[in-house]
Amino acid sequence: MYVASITLISISIVLFIVSLFMKNRFNQIDEQIEQLSLSMMQENYQLKKKLKILEEELLVTDDSPLSFSIPEQKGKSFQNVPLLVKVQRLSKAGKSPETIAKQTSLSIYDVRSILQQIQNSETGGTFS
After folding, report:
1. Would the N or C end of the chain have less CB density within 10 A of its end CB?
2. How many CA atoms lie within 13 A of 15 on its CB side?
3. pTM of the full structure
4. Are 57 and 82 in contact (CB under 8 A)?
5. H or E stretch including 37?
6. What DSSP string runs through 55-79?
């Protein structure tokens, strides 16, 4: 009985010492969760930033949502102009829808749709 208890105590001490040198798997899982959380936060930030840019590009003048008048752009670069106003300016400059599509990175269908909406708003029509 005395030998069995000494054997069990020595085995428990050896196992305890071995457990101190083994890698803790929970630390690895915690690190993976932390990395995943950081990457999700980065992606969320980037998506919000892109969404804000898209909203600014689609923003129309403050007068009314149907108004496509060109605001005065003294001292501002052409890149800061909302997308709809860019399309209107390029159209008034005599550019074709294909050229406007290339310059604004829109599809030709989108450019034609925007031009149709601009034409409808200028003639007093409504958006369809």
Report:
1. N
2. 6
3. 0.36
4. yes
5. helix 25-58
6. HHHHPPPSS-TT--PPPP-TT--GG
